[in-house]
Amino acid sequence: MEKIVEYLNGLDFNILVVILMTIFFSLERLLNSPHKFDKRVPHLLNNLVLGIAFILMNLVAAAVQVSILQWGDSKQLGLFYHVEMPFWLKIVIGIMVLDMSSYWMHRLSHRSPLLWRLHRVHHSDTTMDSSSYFRGHPFEAWTFGLINVFAALIIGADATVLTFYYVFLLPFLIIEHANMVLPDWMDRTFGRIFTTPNLHKVHHHRTQFYTDSNYADIFILWDKLFGTYKYVPVKDISYGLEEFDEPKKQTFWYLLISPFITIKRVSNAD
Q1: pTM of the prediction?
Q2: If we measure between CA atoms, which residue out of 105, 93, 203, 102 comes closest to residue 156?
């Protein structure tokens, strides 16, 4: 276990992201994609530029996260410092608590007009594929990053637990956006507890009734527990936001400044 911890602590997450992106972007070309679209290369480049800006901001946020966790460790704050339990159980509890905190932050990002200005950049993609993982406003690295640190302090999770969480989370984030449909049996089995790609795509439906659902990254269990679970077949999903349909609103510079522009949200009914 010590060797695994040592390896993960030295892991370059950017390299892991590139490897996963290469795998799933290639699979999209080989397998049957439910939504065909042209200009995939410009779409990829546009999302990658946003992703680079997001990653750079995330590096700063990550440094702040580590500093806060080190402070929490020095003060022995949180549950894990006061309740004896096996290391593996700390990892399991840590992943579940961090995922639940992300669920509530995600849900709040849809409810808060201020946070939605940032989060709508991710939802603006009208032709979603695995590169849509990168499509996020750089400032949003702080909102989700800080809520994770806050949750980590409550349970006493250190940087190692946070590392396990991110390693477990990254494949979910990329495959959930991939332009492919997985068999229905996966939703009927794994989808009872985990967020499958088909279930996450419902969250990217342009109809707000569906957009405001399926917030969980890893455990769809949270949506089922807190009443935000919805389902619609992938073939019936139209992606994006109507207020971002114009080509100029899909460009890097427009998406970057969009949080500072008043854009009326189009609330569709199903």
Answers
A1: 0.88
A2: 93
Instruction: Tell me the pLDDT tens digit for each residue of 121-162.
Output: 999 998 888 888 888 899 998 898 889 999 999 999 888 888
DSSP letter for each residue of 137-205? -TTHHHHHHHHHHHHHHHHT--HHHHHHHHHHHHHHHHHTTSS----HHHHHHGGGTB--HHHHHHHTB
Single out the residue of 251, 246, 88, 233 nearest to residue 160, CA to CA: 88
* In the chain, where the domains are located: 2-260
β-partners of residue 219 are 194
Report DSSP state, residue 34: S
Determine the pLDDT at residue 113. 93
Give dist(CA 166, CA 160) in Å, integer: 10
> Residue 215: which of 91, 130, 115 has the closest Cα?
115
Q: Which two tokens stand for residue 189?
A: 């089995």
Any idea what the Cα angle at residue 226 is, between residues 225 and 228, rounded to 5°? 110
Whether the Cβ atoms of residue 230 and residue 187 lie closer than 8 Å to each other: no
